[in-house]
Amino acid sequence: MSDTRAEEPPAGPDPRRWWSLAFIALAQLMVVLDSTIVNIALPSAQRDLGMSDGNRQWVITAYSLAFGGLLLLGGRIADLVGHKRTVVIGLIGFTAASAFGGAATTSGMLFAARALQGVFAAVLAPSALSLLTTTFTDPGERHRAFGIFGTLAASGAAIGFVVGGLVSEYLSWRWCLYVNVPIGIIGVLGALAFLHDGPGREGARLDVPGVLLGCGGVVLIVYGCSEAEPRGWTDPLVTAVFAAGIALLTVFVWWQKKAPVPLLPLHILQDRNRLGCFLTMALSVIGMFGMFLFMTYYLQVVLGYSPLRTGIAFLPLTASIFIGSNQISARLLPRLPPRALMAPGMLLAATGMLILTRMTVHSAYATEIFPALILMGLGMGLTFMPVFSTATAGVAPQDAGVTSATVNTSQQVGGSIGTALLNTIATTTGTAYITTHLTDPAHRARITAEGMVHGYTVAIGWAAAIMLLAGLSAALLVTAKPTRHGTAAVSEYVA
């Protein structure tokens, strides 16, 4: 028999809902931050643990594989056993895995710890977003809450670069993982004290074939993208992995039509607003994560920035994301349809990307990099907040977890694909440039730097095109109307 008490909505707004938001946002920040915090520290970890150049990628991909591949399962588990319970379990597991990784003495231990982080992040992330959806039911307050949540989702990666640079320069690469321990402990205590359990259905069954097919297919696709960087897109292993992943996902869709309790109810994807949000999220993150990768290497290797200075260089991006999400989107979403924010947001972000395609080995940060980061941040802020709010609006309580997981899956898988795809473009075009222009060995250093930057600018140009495609998806697919009755509440907050 199901526990109907867990499914009954509260009689009125939870008086502690803003405290709940603080700890939900803290959990989300920890998950998103760990997607990038180890990037700057990777060279130090590689030297310390004796990783080979071929294996070092697993510090990044072990996390994204587990996270992106298991998010749908994590969302369904949240729906079955309760959102508060899975948030607490996810926080405890993520914190323990972080401590294990910080204490790693071999590369294998670090890879395993990163994979465990991804597993528990897959449980934690959809539960956190589901609790946000069910805690804030007033339209005005909902916009405010999603503005904060969207800011963290969009800027957490940049914050990860700042924290990673700080601890790498002044402490040790291990603190990129240890930093999660105090955050996790505070999150667990806050979750236990302030969160109300979301809807759970005791006695319900998991769709085991759906788990194996869907999660297996996503894992193979993400794995294929990660292997395309060192092997090339036409490598037999890469093509075989992609074929197997596509086959599993095709069978997954067929099974979801027949399953009595599907892992991913297809009616969620049949709603054009949600489908448009999922597609916009995936395409926008492809470009954003590629930009993070290239700008990190550009600032450190080409311009000679320290890890900390590199992290600080991303702060204008974070600040403009906050402004775009909390000051612009929060004001306008109650008055405008979501696509009126999402499509222009992607256009702004693409414009910032196009500015970066003019980078050279001698570009000045203040006049050439800074304006681009501002435009990209504003565009992302305009886009992410309405994506999260629209994708999860009007979802049945029993589907809240899996819908939230689908939003996060599109973000994580998009980031993984973007990193692999754009890095392959940058590497191949950069190598071709060096091969063509290196006629005098005495100029090797200069030509190598120019080739590296050439590869980055070509890949960033592709990222700009992908962001324009994201804007087109939002404009054509997202037809939701503004929630005008929430205007007063939002106006009061942002005034």
TrEMBL record:
It is a multi-pass membrane protein. One of its GO terms (molecular function) is transmembrane transporter activity. Residues 20-482 form the Major facilitator superfamily (MFS) profile domain. It comes from the Bacteria. GO terms for biological process: response to antibiotic. It holds the Pfam family MFS_1. Keywords: Antibiotic resistance, Cell membrane, Membrane, Transmembrane, Transmembrane helix, Transport. The chain crosses the membrane at residues 21-42, 57-75, 87-105, 111-133, 145-166, 172-194, 206-224, 236-255, 275-299, 311-328, 340-357, 369-388, 453-478. The keyword Membrane applies. InterPro entries: EmrB-like (IPR004638), MFS (IPR011701), MFS_dom (IPR020846), MFS_trans_sf (IPR036259). Gene3D superfamilies: MFS general substrate transporter like domains, Multidrug resistance protein D. It is found in: Cell membrane. One of its GO terms (cellular component) is plasma membrane. This is MFS transporter.
